[in-house]
Design goal:
With 365 residues, this protein is α+β, with helices and mostly antiparallel strands. It has 14 helices and eight strands. Strands 3, 4, 5, 6, 7 and 8 form a six-stranded antiparallel beta sheet that branches. A two-stranded antiparallel ribbon has the order 1-2. Helix 6 runs parallel beside helix 13 and helix 12 runs antiparallel to helix 13. The two termini are 42 Å apart.
Length: 365
Amino acid sequence: MLLLDRPVTSTPTEPDVARFLDPDERLLYPEGLQVEVAEKRAARFDAHRHLYRSAREHRRDLQYIAGRVSRNKYVGKCGAISRKRPGSDQRLPVQMMMGVDSDGNALGGFSGLGRCGYAGLCPVCGPKVRQVRAGEINDLVGPWMRAGGDAAVLTFTMQVRPGEHVADHRDAIRDGFAAWKRKLERRGLYDDLGWVGQILSWEFTVRLDLSGNAHIMALWLFTSPMAWGFLQDRPRTWVETMARRDRKASLDHGLHIEQVRIGELEALSSYMAKGAEGHWEMGEEMCRTDRKQARSGDAYAPFELLDLMRQSGDISYDSGPAKAWRAYEKAQANTCTARWSKGLREVLRRVKETGVIEGVTPTLF
């Protein structure tokens, strides 16, 4: 990033070329062409500057609201205090930076500020953390499938009891999923499917009465084309498992299984939530819940609750959306953005390097 010590103009003169072209780039273009390239990038910068600014301001607004209504003290301090030097009690100086990237897009921010890093609670840190997790999944699972492996995404849910707190619903889903896995393992999970490992993530929608839905998404990997005859009967066993636990799930609203094909996740996205437009692959579907919207009219995705308070102007601690947000905070505690089976990362990295999946053994749940 190029640091700017003065505002960017939209029609750069020849000295302004340094703002829009890195030194290495200036070696690639003739002198006359450098000005032309810089002018195009400056025009693109001006055309999109309001979009970057509005998106950044929107995230900052939501972060401020989250800090006001949250029980988590670190969310309220995120980006508001300077961070300490490593191994010292001294704090770093806070500096403002502005610049443009190689395409002329605006970049800016502050250095030296402390961040909370909470993927599920912070509208500023969350998207950054989740995109790193999504990128890791895309980077490792894609080579696995190109090497001849197979994958499926299993989405688990069940019906909500009237007035049931979203955290209680989460506990019931978690316990039912553990029981369902044990039953499946006893019936030959490894031998019949060539199962290798899984990546787990959670999604939540919350209502203003503090009830809501918790969903488990499990990306399962297999060494060869999966036995669909075996998997297609699993929704029925999920319904039976939940019925034995006095919970209700149905074939339509219970376990949904979708075979993964690179670049073809539209059906999966439309099943649970409306995916965001633009770049959307397997990793984004698993991790980028911050970019989704709830399908039900009376339920909200977590960050939609913050946006609801932003639009209404009521950010009081005891407002309905604030109470729903704290219910979500309780429900998402001890959940994960992406939890990998033990040893699965090493398996996929080895396959990425060699392009061969022979000799792969199952990892642990």
